[in-house]
Amino acid sequence: MKIAVSADGPGLEAGVDPRFGRCRYFIVVDPETMQFETLENTSAMATGGAGIGTAQIIANKGVKVVLTGNCGPNAYQTLSAAGVQVITGATGTVKEAVEAYKDGRIKPTAQSNVPSHFGTGQGMGMGRGMGMRRTGMGMPAPPPMSNAAVETLTEQLRSLNLQLQKLNERISELERKRR
Prior knowledge:
This protein is an alpha/beta fold. The chain has four helices and five strands. The chain is globular.
């Protein structure tokens, strides 16, 4: 089985890119052996349809599972139609995300978790003629969030807190050794 992870760099130690369609790389990993192939995302700079184009590239590679931070509706629909499972909320390094998947700590997603054009900054009520609501302080009001989006953010927060805890433990360990 092949797993594709959206990544900000070309290897297992690269960070998980929170954007599916506009990530720079995909790391295609065999979760049993951890052997991997790096794919440059040729759709990342597309003026439109990046999510769909990226989803087609991934599906054509024989990938069965995608791990990413966020996935918009067009990419999600394209991946689902190709029989590819989508898991959003992945964080940390590519290797950590694959391990979290293998351990069952991250689960398949039932729908996209962000609106269209999210990776371009246009999916949050900005651009595309949608205008911006304002709060009393002149700041844009946040868009309403679905239960799935809240659950995804909560899971991302848990994961980040765990990473922070591990980093603090590692720093303490290194400081003890340094003394």
